[in-house]
């Protein structure tokens, strides 16, 4: 299975939380005796130096029958209606992380601790068909399960760890909200940040939704809520799709955003519409990181979803916050300049710019960041088409939106003398902060289109070899002036005043 790290870890957390749900009454009594006010605790500990990952829970624990199911492939639990249903999760996720792992578990009320080690390489080398289980005495009031994975195939980088913590908080938001489940990463509690909902004079822009989707002879129910975010932010827009109170699809930067509901990424609804939809009876894949959408099920789901979201989508597209004063003071300009000054006045910044001026390096990088149209188009959304009349010739400018964190923020191509293809990367670290407000989206579009037009004009005027940097600046200045006066142009007013 091609897991994302947080989904692999979620397989272990699923087992821990389901054990808690199955034996909640007995465990809550045990927690009370132990002086534990928080309920279930799941600790995920990662040691970079020893390359080990440990998952320890205070759930009900396992006896030999449960442990056997945990170790043997294709051994589903007796009642497969919870989060652990296929009998594959622990084995496949543990083997995805490393080839050697150990399970230790003792069940509440049992007087023995069971320990089993799976060494995939040794099993293959010796053709072993059995895994020995060792039993040692332990107090009957003890209850836990600990999984230790050694020699990880994939060391976890700091950035990946941050993503894992964030995604786990999102995936188990319902458990964390209940206050009965605590998940920790290296001792630090995993958090879930609730997103602010827009409040208008008419009330909070959040509503409950319920609908059904045909599925063979049955109808699959969906219930939850949709809302409009207080301020637009692409990272938190989109829906999360939950099953049995655990997120299957969605989360920070992973929101479910079908184009039929959210439109193009530059539309305001794409930045503000979000919500949670519970789909408890829907089929999921084995990795539980997606639904089984076979037979056109997703298309039908999107059709029904679009209906319940239509009103809120239109509201989000048309809603504007009250405009603020246009007067900019020296103090405001200085404050706005401070973050940029802290960057550009560092010696490291100048050193990097000097290094970038090497012509051979620039030529090489231009070739790398200018992929062919065939490489770009499958990754694009849109396009938004602009038709510019040029003295009897019509230029066609197509603006595409992409989400590729490692690619340039803007790529421009000229398929023909009258065509301009502009690809804006909404996931670029420079670009992404400006997607939170509609005015910022409009500004980014206007600047990007002006740059693309100025580049085309400069190429037409001077050719590839003779282009002068000053000419590009002059032409871009003109394009920006005209773009700023779009209302005047539409009214037929004199545009020479600028």
Estimated helix fraction: 25-40%
Mean pLDDT: 82
Continuous helix count: 17
Based on secondary structure, the structural category is alpha+beta
Order of the strands making up the biggest sheet: 5-4-3-6-2-1-7-8
Distance between the termini: 61 Å
| DSSP, total strands | 19
Shape: elongated
Largest sheet: 8 strands, mixed
Low-confidence stretches: 359-370, 485-498
List the helices and strands and how they pair.
Blueprint: H1 5-22, H2 24-34, E1 40-47, E2 52-57, H3 64-71, H4 89-97, E3 100-106, E4 112-119, H5 120-126, E5 133-137, E6 144-150, H6 158-171, H7 173-178, E7 181-185, E8 188-189, E9 199-200, E10 203-204, E11 206-215, E12 218-228, E13 238-243, E14 246-249, H8 259-262, H9 269-272, E15 273-278, H10 297-318, H11 330-344, H12 347-356, H13 359-369, H14 373-376, E16 380-390, E17 393-402, E18 410-416, E19 419-425, H15 438-466, H16 469-484, H17 486-491
Parallel strand pairs: 1-7, 13-15, 17-19
Antiparallel strand pairs: 1-2, 2-6, 3-4, 3-6, 4-5, 7-8, 9-10, 11-12, 12-15, 13-14, 16-17, 18-19
Helix pairs in contact: 1-4, 1-6, 15-16
